[in-house]
Amino acid sequence: MPEHLLFSYGTLQAPQVQKARFGRELAGHRDALPGFRLETVTITDASVIADSGSDQHPMAVPSGASEDVIEGVVFTFTPDDLAAADAYEVDYLRIQVALRSGAKAWVYVDTATAEDFRVRRLLDAQANAIALFDEVVERKLIVAGESERAISDRIRDLADEMFGTTRHWHKRIIRSGPNTLLPYNDNPPDRVLQDDDIAFADFGPIFADFEADLGRTHVLGDDPVKHRLAADLPTVFDAGRRFFAEHPDITGAQLHAEIQRLARAAGWELGGTGFAGHLIGEFPHEIMDAERIQSYIAPGNTTPMRGKDRAGRICHWILEIHLVEPEGRFGGFYEQLLDLG
């Protein structure tokens, strides 16, 4: 069972709160949160007031000043413990931060701070991923005569060189030729790229504990049909993004149907595993789950996409466009943030 570090600067340190919410007293160790200061907020939830004994609770607020430090205690939580803490901290949301010790831990802050923090981190992660792929093109890493696996490894090493990034939240993919028809879950044999190939990359590097998810397509030769497919990918993406923006109550099923319509209108078929995107956020995923259709832009997801996750955070989405040539000879792929940027 995965473990989570949680930094407490307030009432979660109180034994009576721990017994009421976790059924036991917790063991922790001292640490501190730099760049934040404390304010006091008034709590209105009757059960929280009953457990803590007060309606006046501290709130961590980012100050940006290195001299501001909040002292506290780090606890190691199971997922069930974390869910119990979320239920207690009803007027807060949690974000991941770096503590004075260098450890990464969850901490509860106000909702406005949490959302601003998440948006900035997601956009920063995507900007880094775009810069990575731009450098891949600049260095001509996707070339004929190299295997898909070798190119994937070179891009991995480049991410480490540029950003010190060694973790990826999903398997790294380079697909070429007929392999570009295959969905993400397939694991085709390694293939050497040819002079007239179309190829795509699908990478999910983790930057500052936030996931990027970016897909791009590259054409090696002069085939006009392959070049048209590569050009249509961002066009279909942009049209799907506009459709999402114009329909405030859109569901995952409705957006998937529109992406399929756009693909066919452009002369292509929609490939993939039956979905056209997914939730995105902090690593590791706490929401995206193959058993929860609400996590996907897919048929069957009748939940409005503009909602909140189980912890009360605003949902943010990745849109994936996998187009395949109608005769089934090749495909292409494009993905990035749908609702941000």
Automatic annotation (TrEMBL):
Peptidase M24 domain ranges (all copies): 125-305
Source species, domain of life: Bacteria
SUPFAM superfamilies: Creatinase/aminopeptidase, Gamma-glutamyl cyclotransferase-like
InterPro entries, per database record: AIG2-like_dom (IPR009288), Creatinase/aminopeptidase-like (IPR036005), GGCT-like (IPR013024), GGCT-like_sf (IPR036568), Pept_M24 (IPR000994)
Residue ranges occupied by any Gamma-glutamylcyclotransferase AIG2-like domain in the UniProt entry: 6-110
Pfam families noted in UniProt: GGACT, Peptidase_M24
Protein name: Gamma-glutamylcyclotransferase AIG2-like domain-containing protein
